[in-house]
Design brief:
The structure is a single chain. The chain is of the alpha/beta class and 296 residues long. The chain is 40% helix and 18% strand. It is elongated and about 70 Å long. It folds into two domains: 7-70; 92-291, 3-Layer(aba) Sandwich (Rossmann fold). The longest helix has 16 residues, at 101-116. The chain has helices spanning 7-20, 26-38, 42-47, 55-69, 74-78, 101-116, 134-142, 155-167, 213-216, 232-244, 260-269; strands at 80-83, 86-89, 124-128, 147-152, 174-178, 193-198, 245-254, 274-279, 285-291.
């Protein structure tokens, strides 16, 4: 007679297995994988703690555990990643949203209030390198009224971003364009934005091979590689940003470790006299904002 494994027993065994593989959050990952496998919520794993799993359910879960321990990112297995108030679809070939980027969104929302103020004007944003739509959709979801353009060079990423917009009912608030940074935008002299926002590739090329296996072997290199010192995209964006910003507009970047100074210099040299830098919860200078107007 085949023994019946309950949810509680399977979860405990999975946690132990993942811990032996040196994963940093074995309990959380076991819960997320099992919930995904059984199409349950994490809460339901515990409300149904004594439910026995069928043989086919156990076999499916084992396959997912093996994929994870082979280095496949958890988000590619479950097909999703939580970001602020959104649950975003992700998949192979699309950059996985990071929690650090939540700080960028937070600061952009704060800054746009200062720029637009009580004018009741509809703020306009340009999100360069949107990936899964992480930044543009968070802004669209949290700001009641906004006009947002989102650009990405990857057709695969853009398709995922558009699907995420539809899934969250935000597709009417965001215009998606496929292309390389500013060249993707229509040639309209009057097109100006209140803010340009970007989390561009910022890993120095020589450091790509030192990243975790699940990052370097699975996530798209073009979403990671920022050139020799990791700042190629910052330079390309800052050189043309003022062409697309309103007089009181600003540009906001997420930056890598020890990059805030060099990116700040780029901004200062490109017409942004007022610069603010914000640290993340680990004390790393993670977000930099440059204002065209020195008094903002």
């Amino acid at each position: 007679m085949v023994s019946k494994w309950t949810l509680t027993q399977v979860l405990a065994a999975a946690k132990e297995y993942l811990a032996k593989q040196k994963l940093t959050s074995p309990q959380l990952e076991a819960e997320l994988l099992l919930a995904h496998s059984l199409e349950l919520t994490r809460v339901e794993l515990y409300t149904q703690y004594d439910r026995p799993l069928k043989q086919e359910e156990r076999e499916k879960f084992k396959r997912l555990l093996k994929e994870r321990c082979a280095g496949k990112p958890l988000q590619y297995i479950t097909g999703s990643q939580a970001f602020r108030r959104l649950n975003l679809r992700v998949g192979q070939g699309v950059f996985i949203p990071r929690p650090e980027t939540e700080l960028l969104v937070e600061k952009v929302i704060e800054e746009i209030g200062c720029v637009v103020g009580s004018s009741n004007s509809r703020p306009a944003f340009l999100d360069l390198g949107t990936g899964a739509g992480t930044i543009c959709l968070a802004l669209a979801e949290e700001l009641e009224d906004a006009d947002i353009w989102a650009v990405d060079i990857s057709e695969k990423s853009l398709a995922v971003a558009e699907a995420n917009a539809i899934a969250h009912g935000l597709d009417r608030k965001v215009t998606f364009v496929c292309g390389d940074l500013f060249s993707a935008l229509p040639v309209v002299p009057a097109m100006k934005f209140d803010a340009i926002v970007a989390n561009p590739p910022y890993i120095p090329s020589a450091q790509i091979d030192t990243l975790q296996d699940e990052v370097k072997n699975h996530e798209p290199r073009e979403a990671l590689d920022g050139g020799a010192i990791g700042t190629d995209f910052y330079r390309r964006i800052t050189e043309r940003a003022t062409e697309y910003l309103k007089d009181r507009g600003f540009i906001a970047f997420e930056v890598g470790i020890d990059q805030s100074e060099v990116v700040g210099d780029m901004l200062a040299d490109s017409g942004f006299p007022s610069i603010d830098i914000f640290e993340d919860y680990n004390g790393i200078k993670r977000v930099i904002i440059g204002h065209r107007h020195p008094n903002l």
